[in-house]
Specification:
disordered N terminus, nine-stranded antiparallel sheet, mainly beta, 14 strands, single chain, 0% helix
């Protein structure tokens, strides 16, 4: 049979949430089965977007696209008790990574997830129509 390649060299797990999907100004909701569980300290939702140019502004709130437009993406995780966690863009790589943001850059622990917390819903909306090639949940241990 085929050997599956390790997805992340750093021991993090990756789980696919969605294949290609159109996003826009209305919330799109995903209900992963089983719910997503934070098993590591740092967790991300990754959106694979083909036409990213770089950060759109100094605070990394928006993403600049190759057509010159500014993309704002809002992501909300809802845990099994109904509590919301909002995610912010924290990395631009093959996937645009969204995680918790430390209020104070010196206190990285603010961005940590509570291990064992389960999220039954993921909601995403964007300020303009957007085709996302893939959405993943990714975790890594520092």
């Amino acid at each position: 049979g085929c050997q599956s390649l390790p997805q992340r060299q750093n021991g993090g797990g990756v789980r696919k949430i969605s294949d290609q999907i159109n996003l826009g100004s209305d919330w799109v909701e995903f209900s992963p089965q089983p719910p997503i569980e934070a098993t590591k300290t740092l967790c991300y939702i990754g959106l694979k977007i083909s036409n990213v140019k770089g950060w759109g502004d100094a605070n990394n709130e928006t993403i600049a696209l190759t057509d010159g437009s500014q993309l704002k993406i809002e992501i909300e995780l809802i845990n099994e008790k109904g509590k919301s966690t909002f995610l912010f863009p924290v990395g631009l790589a093959e996937f645009v990574e969204f995680g918790k943001r430390a209020k104070n850059k010196d206190i990285i622990q603010d961005a940590y997830f509570i291990k064992g917390e389960k999220f039954s819903k993921i909601r995403i909306k964007t300020n303009q129509p957007l085709i996302v090639d893939e959405i993943i949940w990714s975790e890594l241990e520092l």
